Amino acid sequence: MSDRKYIFDSYQLPSGVTLKNRVLLAPMTNFLSNDDGSVSDKELEYYKRRSGGVGAVITACANVNEYGKGFDGEIGAHRDDLIPSLHKLADAIHAKGSKAILQIFHGGRMCPPHLIPNEDVVSASAVAALRPNSPTPREMTEEEIQQTIADFGAATRRAIEAGFDGVEIHGANTYLLQQFFSPHSNRRDDQWGGSVEDRMNFPLAVVESVKSAVTEHAKDQFVVGYRLSPEEREEPGITMDDTLQLVDVLAKQNLDYLHISLSSFNQGSMRDENDTRPRIDLIQERVGSIVPVMGVGSLHTADDVEGALAKVPMISLGREMLMEPDWVEKVAKGEEDQIRTAMKLNQQEELAIPEPMWTKILNVPNWFPKEEE
Ligand SMILES: Cc1cc2nc3c(=O)[nH]c(=O)nc-3n(C[C@H](O)[C@H](O)[C@H](O)COP(=O)(O)O)c2cc1C
């Protein structure tokens, strides 16, 4: 049996929902949903294989309206007829004993045009991302902004009706909420842009819409988390100073957690290589006593996770749980030396990573260490 100090402690979130331990499945897009946004059978198998050990599963991002679809094979949370399919997903996760959290999302200017009606890609302003072949989006109208805020609330209602325990608002990784907060993608001079306070208005309106949906529709305690990326490389771009102001305000919104999206848990600044102070420490010091902070990023071993949990109350595991779906169970049984630390190329079926996800993840250079076995 494991004598790990933190991992297996239960944890009660501010809403009252209790996680049986401190490790969550990080949200990971799997390209496995059907074209209409419904969850496929192979996707259910993928989630079942990764549920049970973790305290909660945070799903892949699910688009809240048809202009927000960022990936082929993405889960849809944008129509009521998708509620039965979302219900199957929540049930599959619950059947294994983990809480189920739906990540809700709009891709904004990062959406591939072929996935969007009339290829009409929208964002805060008509500024293309600094990546090759990025489309120049159309600036959202006031009406579209209000509709999108309402769509986050409607997606939350669907998650409640589908039996999820919570939603995570995707405010990270360059997508629409971050685009409104970023001085690179947001050049507006109305109430939705300009000063750092005004750039917060859209993300805060989304939080309010989500919280209102919970008040109106949830009969039980319901988790609302918020994911953010602390910095951007772009000039202008989100600075740590901007983010500390944002987390000050988010900490007052009665959220269950802030999930800090970093590729490495203890990462320093991506804007200033001389500033090596871990971003997670700066955020934990600033608001950790007010709102629980969740970390993520290249936490491979039980020692890595214990070290992280000495700083923050929860962590999520992404690629580790693709390579090792039994990560938590193996630590619990004291079988840490059995944890797979590379993608075993002859174990696609055993790992429950169906096509097209398998081919996609293997084609990204340096994403996973790979072994023939
Ligand atoms: C295949 C894949 C898909 C991902 N999709 C999402 C996503 O849908 N939403 C999100 O917030 N992050 C997504 N991420 C980022 C992960 O949640 C996580 O932050 C990142 O992989 C770093 O954690 P790790 O080192 O434990 O993998 C994805 C990562 C991977 C590898």
Report on this model:
With 373 residues, this protein is an alpha/beta fold. The protein has one domain (5-363): Aldolase class I (TIM Barrel). It has 13 helices and 15 strands. It has helices at 41-49, 83-95, 142-161, 176-181, 196-199, 201-217, 240-250, 279-287, 302-309, 319-323, 327-332, 348-351, 357-363; strands at 11-12, 18-19, 23-25, 56-63, 75-76, 99-105, 122-123, 138-139, 166-171, 223-228, 257-260, 293-296, 314-317, 343-344, 370-371. Strands 3-4-6-9-10-11-12-13 form an 8-stranded parallel barrel, surrounded by 5 helices. Flavin mononucleotide binds at residues 26-29, 60-61, 103, 170, 172-173, 227, 261, 263, 296-298, 317-320, 361.
List keywords for this structure.
373 residues, alpha/beta, TIM Barrel, eight-stranded parallel barrel, two-stranded antiparallel sheet, 13 helices, binds flavin mononucleotide
Low-pLDDT runs: none
Major sheet: 8 strands, parallel, barrel
Q: How many domain units?
A: 1
**CATH superfamily label:** Aldolase class I
Say how many strands there are: 15
Pairing-aware structural class of the strands and helices?
alpha/beta
Name the CATH architecture.
Alpha-Beta Barrel
If you average the pLDDT, what whole number results? Answer: 97
Radius of gyration: 19 Å
How large is the count of helical segments? 13
Outline, from the CA principal axes?
globular
Share of helical residues: 25-40%
- Write the H/E string, N to C: EEEHEEHEEEHEHHHEHEHEHEHHEHHE
CATH class: Alpha Beta
Q: List bound small molecules.
A: flavin mononucleotide
CATH fold type? TIM Barrel
What is the chains' assembly state?
A: single chain
Side by side, the strands of the main sheet go 3-4-6-9-10-11-12-13
Q: How much of the residues is beta strand, in percent?
A: 15-25%
**End-to-end distance, in Å?**
27 Å
